[in-house]
Specification:
single chain; 268 residues; alpha/beta; 11 helices; globular
C-alpha cells in the first residue's frame, strides 16, 4: 500500500501538486507528541525521500495548535508507549525524525499556529522554513518543570538566532509571539489568522515551483558547512554544483535565461 493511501492513527498524510503534507492529528491533545506518532512521521519521510514527484514537504498541526510538546503522560506513564528500538543508533524516535528532516534533499516547511513548544519547538527548528499565524506562541518552557531539552534545540537554536538569545530561551523557559520570533529570525514570515491559510498556501506553492534538486543540493551544502571547515566545504560545494548542472532544471534555467522568459521547473 502506498503511504498516500494509508490511514494513519496520529497523523494525516496528503499529496497534491507536488506537495506532501504531514498533519499532526491529535487536536484534543494539542498535537502532543508520542512515540507511535513520531514513527508514523518516520515512515512517511522514508517513503517520500526518493519520490521525485514530491517537491516540498509541509509539517503542520490539526486544530488549535501546531504542537504543545511531548505527551508526558504517554511517554512517562504508559507501559504501552515505550520508545521503539531503532537500528541506526538513534536513542528515541524524535532523533530519527529530526535527522530525516535534515537529510532529505527537499525543502521542509513548518506551518505554525497556536502553541509551538518543547519537543514541538525542536521539530520546527529542524525544518528549512518556519511560517506562522499571528497567534503563534513559540518557545521552550521545559526548564520550569526541570525537564531538559533532548532533540536538537541545543544545536539548532544558537545557529539560528545566536548564542545569547538561544541561552535566554532555553534556560529561562521564555515564550515568544510571532512578531518577536520574526524580529530575531526564528521564523521566516507570519500572517494574520484571517489570511493565514491563503498566504501560507502561496508560500508553499512558490517553493514547490522552484528547482527542487537544486534546493536539495543547497540544503546539503548548508548541512555540511555547519560541521566542516571552509576548505572542505568549498570542495563539497563544487562537487554538488557539478551534480546540479546535470539536472533537467539546470538546463531549463540556462535556456530560459538565454530565451528571456520565466523558467518552468519540473523538480528533476
Amino acid at each position: 500500500m502506498s503511504i498516500s493511501d494509508k490511514n494513519y492513527k496520529d497523523i494525516i498524510y496528503h499529496e497534491e501538486n507536488g506537495i506532501g503534507t504531514i498533519t499532526l492529528n491529535r487536536p484534543n491533545k494539542l498535537n502532543a507528541l508520542q512515540y507511535p506518532l513520531l514513527m508514523e512521521i518516520v515512515e512517511v519521510l522514508e517513503g517520500i525521500k526518493e519520490n521525485q514527484s514530491i517537491r516540498v514537504i509541509v509539517l503542520k498541526g490539526a486544530g488549535r495548535s501546531f504542537c504543545s510538546g511531548d505527551d508526558l503522560v504517554s511517554m512517562m506513564g504508559a507501559a504501552t508507549d515505550y520508545p521503539p528500538l531503532l537500528e541506526e543508533g538513534f536513542g528515541i524516535p524524535h532523533h530519527k525524525v529530526i535527522y530525516l528532516i535534515r537529510e532529505i534533499q527537499k525543502p521542509v516547511i513548518a506551518v505554525l499556529h497556536g502553541y509551538c513548544l518543547g519537543a514541538g519547538f525542536e521539530l520546527a527548528l529542524a525544518c528549512d522554513f518556519r511560517i506562522a499565524a499571528d497567534n503563534l506562541e513559540i518557545g521552550d518552557h521545559r526548564t520550569t518543570r526541570s525537564i531538559a531539552i533532548l532533540s536538537g534545540a541545543s544545536w539548532f537554536l544558537p545557529r539560528l538566532i545566536g548564542l545569547t538569545r538561544a541561552t535566554d530561551i532555553l534556560l529561562t523557559g521564555k515564550h515568544l509571539n510571532a512578531k518577536e520570533a520574526l524580529e530575531i529570525g526564528l521564523i521566516n514570515e507570519y500572517y494574520n489568522q484571517a489570511e493565514f491559510e491563503e498566504k501560507s498556501t502561496e508560500f508553499i506553492s512558490r517553493i514547490a515551483q522552484m528547482p527542487t534538486r537544486c534546493l536539495g543540493y543547497n540544503k546539503t551544502m548548508i548541512n555540511y558547512s555547519l560541521i566542516n571547515n571552509l576548505f572542505d566545504s568549498l570542495k563539497n560545494d563544487l562537487a554538488l554544483f557539478v551534480e546540479n548542472m546535470k539536472t533537467a532544471d539546470s538546463r531549463e534555467g540556462h535556456a530560459s535565461f538565454l530565451e528571456k522568459r520565466d523558467p518552468v521547473f519540473k523538480g528533476r
